[in-house]
Structure formats: C-alpha cells, structure tokens
Amino acid sequence: MGAIYIIEHLERRVWKWCIYEYEHISQTIGKKNLWFTNVKRGSKVLSKYGRVFRGSVRDMKLDKACVLDSDGKKTLSPKEARGFRYFIFGGILGDHPPRKRTRKELTKFISNAIVRDIGKRQMATDNAVYVVHEIEGGTLLKKMKFKQGVRIRINKIESTDLPYRYALVNGEPFMSNRVVTYLKRKRD
C-alpha cells in the first residue's frame, strides 16, 4: 500500500475550484490514497474522491508524516519519500504574492512531522501532490520540468494568468481540465 496523501482544507468552504483540483488529485493518486481533513461543509461531494474527516490533521497522531511547505529547509528526496507513510498538504486557494499560509495555519502546529519542500515557488495543490507522487516513485525534483505561470485564454481578447508553478507532463502544464473550463466560463 502506498502513502496516504492528506489535504488539510484551509478555506472557509469547499469552492468549485477546490473540488476540481481535489478530483484531479484523486485521479492522480487514487481515492484510497487520499484523505481530506478539516472539512466542515462539503464532505458529501469530497467523499467521491477520498476519505473525509471533519477534524484537523493537526489533531491526528500520525507516525512517519511529512508536511510539504515551501518554507521547508530541505527538499524532499526519493529515498526519504519512500520512508514516509503520510504526506500533508495545505488545501489553499493561493494568493499572489503568497502569504505563507501553509506555515502559519498548518506546519507550525504539527510538531511530530518532518517538514520538506518541493521547491520555493507556490504550486496549485494538485501540482504539489503530483510532484510528491513522482518523487515518491523515484524521480528527483531537479529532473522534473516546470513552467512558471500559465495563461488561460478565455476568448480572443481576454485571458486569465495563473502565477503558480506547474509541472510539465508531456510538455503541457499539469492542470485539471475542469479548472480550465471553469475559468473560461467564469464571468465574475
């Protein structure tokens, strides 16, 4: 059995964008390997994609746990990754510039976990999970290719820029098609 990937949901509610990213994560690592914690509302929707907990991961006593935080002092390696049972991520809709919410709302509260980074640049949650999954599978971070910032064309004159770091898979940014569709349809 592989590691459990835990998304500590740190938003007020489960926004559509979150659902689409969480669905993408489930497709990437499998429903049985995915937990959502700190989910106060929206558990029925998220239960399609993984196991849902109302309580916070901060209150769980987990052995062999790693918190992924861009403020980590050491980068996760494949050898080290294989020794972890749990990978913990902050489920956050990112800000630009970043406000370091993972550190403030999650990392400093989980004293028994090891903190590692996967680079210093902010990633979408589904990308962070994908990158850790690849590292756990034996790929070195420095061997992966990334693109900083993605522009989504809305129509001939409008676009939306996402300033985050995206892993490249077959030359394309690793991104949920449902997020792209959502952005193209969003009018507010």
Estimate nothing, just give the exact number of structural domains: 1
The global form is: globular
Distance between the termini: 43 Å
User: Could you describe the largest sheet, including whether it forms a barrel?
Assistant: 6 strands, parallel
Describe this structure in words.
The chain has helices at residues 16-29, 43-46, 78-81, 101-105, 125-136, 177-185; strands at 4-9, 34-37, 51-52, 65-68, 86-91, 114-116, 146-153, 159-169, 172-173. It has six helices and nine strands; from the N terminus they run E-H-E-H-E-E-H-E-H-E-H-E-E-E-H. With 188 residues, it is of the alpha/beta class. The protein has a single domain, classed as 3-Layer(aba) Sandwich (Alpha/beta knot). Helix 3 links the parallel strand 4 (65-68) and strand 5. Helices cover 26% and strands 24% of the residues. Helix 1 runs parallel beside helix 5. The strands form two sheets. Strands 3-2-1-5-4-6 form a six-stranded parallel sheet.
